[in-house]
Amino acid sequence: MFDAVSRDRHIGAFRRLTPRPYARARVLLFPHGGGSASYYRAWAAAAPWDVEFLAAQYPGREDRYSDPVPAKLQGVAAALAADLTDRADGPPLPTVLFGHSMGAVVAYETARRLTAAGEPPTALVVSGHPAPQLTRPGRVHLGSDEELIEELRRTEATHRDILDNAALIQAFLPIIRGDYRLSETYRPAPGTRLSTPVTVLYGDRDPEIHAWEAEGWREVTDGACELRTFEGGHFYLEEHRDVVVDLLTTRARKASETSAISWPSAP
């Protein structure tokens, strides 16, 4: 029988914000550029008893502040995938990957590596980002601090109280600039193609992704691909969090129904 107690620990760089010791499936959450695992704290708290939400903690922030950031986005994904496959706490749970903005391509690259290792995720849900092959090049990471702050205001990627606090924003800028570098220099390399079903979410007023760029996600998988539009801009998630959490929970539960793992009884 699967030992639920052994899953009370973190998995490498993934943070258990609200443990679900009797979870039958899990959702792995990948933050946007400049974001951290704590962005998803409310999501994890809202998860039902049988689905556990874990959030990736990228290097260079919060409890990983001193960890070096890889030169390429693929390096971030490779380290996260290694944490998931190099495990000593029992068989893998059915797993759904979700990523928003930069997190969408980190989740995608992680899914590719899990697939290559023989442990493909049961579903990939991506949000607010063009298909990998359509990733927009950019030079924001090369601009001045003032230009970078203006970009953050435009995309509403950072709360205004942080942007208006000179001391606080100076502490965040190196992290944000580094993430822009990862995003703007990212190019998908030939390699593993997914068989996992993909769901694409985006806001109908999001300037960072157009409908045709969302359609491009169909090219990354041999599985089904579904598109869903929400009212809102790049951070439509703020208004539609409960709907997205329910969608992820449904995907995870569907996967657990066909799992061969023997589960303990509900508490």
Q: How do the strands and helices of this protein lay out in sequence?
A:
Layout: E1 14-15, E2 25-30, H1 41-46, E3 51-56, H2 73-85, E4 95-100, H3 102-116, E5 123-127, H4 145-155, H5 160-163, H6 166-184, E6 198-203, H7 211-215, E7 225-230, H8 237-257
Helix pairs in contact: 2-3
GO molecular function: hydrolase activity
Pfam family, one: Thioesterase
Protein name: Putative thioesterase
- Count of helical segments? 8
The second-level CATH architecture of the largest domain is: 3-Layer(aba) Sandwich
Element-level helix/strand string: EEHEHEHEHHHEHEH
Radius of gyration, in angstroms, nearest whole number: 18 Å
Return the domain count: 2
Number of strands: 7
Poorly predicted sequence stretches spanning 5 or more consecutive residues: 1-8, 260-267
Q: Strand-residue fraction?
A: 5-15%
- Structural class by secondary-structure content: alpha/beta
Index terms:
single chain; 267 residues; alpha/beta; Rossmann fold; seven-stranded mixed beta sheet; 35% helix; disordered N terminus; disordered C terminus
Characterize the structure shown:
It is a single chain. This protein has helices at 41-46, 73-85, 102-116, 145-155, 160-163, 166-184, 211-215, 237-257, and strands spanning 14-15, 25-30, 51-56, 95-100, 123-127, 198-203, 225-230. With 267 residues, it is of the alpha/beta class. It has two domains: 4-132 and 191-255, Rossmann fold, CATH 3.40.50; 136-185, no CATH class. A seven-stranded mixed sheet has the order 1-3-2-4-5-6-7, sandwiched between helices. The chain starts with 13 loop residues before the first strand and ends in a 10-residue tail after the last helix. GO terms for molecular function: hydrolase activity. InterPro entries: AB_hydrolase_fold, TEII, TesA-like, Thioesterase. Belongs to the thioesterase family.
